[in-house]
């Protein structure tokens, strides 16, 4: 089955007919004849979506919607509210109560199913994001701070700038704090090529210079980095059922009326926009938390360098590239000389300062394609892709000089002399395993220590048989 759907309607024939239509589309359907039964069923069954009729025997459909959306256990479940065609007051009340979609009766079956698919896709995305965040929390990564919600910027794209300006004036009755900007197709595509589009939402007319051109524009925007996460709503004529269904199935967040002149219509639209924008802010924050969690999972918090968890897979990729391209590369292990004495003599705060400054100095020498990681207390790993032996040795000597030529300044102004020992191993397409490479570099580094420290020793990896 595609998912469980709960129908709350007091009229048995309505419930049975709607169940037959949804069962035919392979949905698992549960039925409730009143609000109390719907709440009990929702808590017990945890449906993927709830359909609520406006009239119930023990409470109004609006009351049931409000109770669902304020219940922590049920609030994430999408709600479709069914109301009489001319009952605008009930429609607006349901939207204010948290309904995700309002459909007038008699509803169009094909459009209803398109709405169902759209809401269930969004619910699946939300659930997946929550699962990832929960996994990161279980691993010990805290959620990032919630940022201040700046006013949302909304772009308006109509067949003419004059019509888009009419939309702007109408929506401005209810969105005084938000930015409403008239755009044309070219401007929208240009902005979408930026890493971060300035628009949180776009309202696009289904028909621009040609019929359904707005749908093609939406598909273009969904494929571009700057606008793929934006809320995109298609404005279509009420009678354009096929256009509405196609828009929802192509990824529109909503289908809005093209005629926005009536005050009730603009209030309806702005309530829906606010809901979509609130969801976008939640998803944006979740993505930001996940990105920060991934960064923290691979970064050494003291030095800001990559850690061992990140470095070893990257070293494997560098080695694999060398195998395919038949080019050499270099691996170094660097260890601070007599670091324990620094900690014992001056304290761990000075030791941390030394590690941080070493990381900074090493970073200034290496290029953007080179790998630099702190893999132990005072041990660093460096990999230089596409690097022949002579260049690798010159780089290693330079790293030694960068550390030992200039004293490290303590907080009290006194100078501290620091040196490093480096073990260098040169690899080519005949390499052994990564573990063998790191072990060889470690042996070379120990040779540096044994021979007096503050120097580079090279270990040539033997050829495979």
Automatic annotation (TrEMBL):
The reaction(s) this protein catalyses: 2 GTP = 3',3'-c-di-GMP + 2 diphosphate
Domain GGDEF span(s) in chain numbering: 327-461
Broadest EC class assigned to this enzyme: transferase
Keyword Phosphoprotein among UniProt keywords: yes
GO MF annotations in UniProt: diguanylate cyclase activity
Pfam families: GGDEF, Response_reg
Keywords of the record: Nucleotidyltransferase, Phosphoprotein, Transferase
Modified residue annotations for 4-aspartylphosphate: 53
The UniProt record lists the keyword Transferase: yes
Highest rank taxon of the organism: Bacteria
EC number(s) recorded for this UniProt protein: 2.7.7.65
All copies of domain Response regulatory, residue ranges: 4-120, 153-273
UniProt cross-references to NCBIfam families, sorted A to Z: GGDEF (TIGR00254)
Protein name: diguanylate cyclase
Species: Thioclava kandeliae
Lineage, opening ranks: Bacteria, Pseudomonadati, Pseudomonadota, Alphaproteobacteria, Rhodobacterales
